[in-house]
């Protein structure tokens, strides 16, 4: 697992928490920040997976 995958997963979880807190309190800004963090985390996880795949191909 690449470090970007781990950081992305953490950001995705944090975003989920922010989004849920925003929904619970009616804070649309917090909800939007959470959704943005989730998307950013998913992208970062994808980048990490791509780096791992590229590294595996180059090792062959």
Notes on the protein architecture:
- It is a single chain.
- With 60 residues, the chain is mainly α.
- The protein has helices at residues 3-25, 28-59.
- It has two helices and no strands.
SSE order and pairing:
Blueprint: H1 3-25, H2 28-59
Helix pairs in contact: 1-2
Alpha plus pi helix count: 2
For the sheet with most strands, the description reads:
none
- Sheet-strand content, in percent, reads under 5%
Question: What value does the Rg take, in angstroms?
Answer: 15 Å
Q: Which term fits the overall shape?
A: rod-shaped
Oligomeric organization of the protein chains: single chain
- The number of distinct β-strands equals 0
Summarize the structure.
This protein is an all-alpha fold. The protein is built from 2 helices and no strands. Helix content is about 90%, strand content about 0%.
Record keyword descriptors for this entry.
60 residues; mainly alpha; 2 helices; 92% helix
């Amino acid at each position: 697992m690449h470090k970007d995958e781990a950081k992305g997963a953490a950001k995705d979880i944090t975003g989920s928490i922010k989004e849920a807190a925003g929904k619970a309190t009616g804070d649309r800004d917090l909800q939007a920040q959470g959704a943005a963090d989730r998307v950013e985390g998913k992208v970062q996880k994808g980048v990490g997976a791509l780096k791992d795949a590229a590294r595996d191909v180059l090792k062959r």
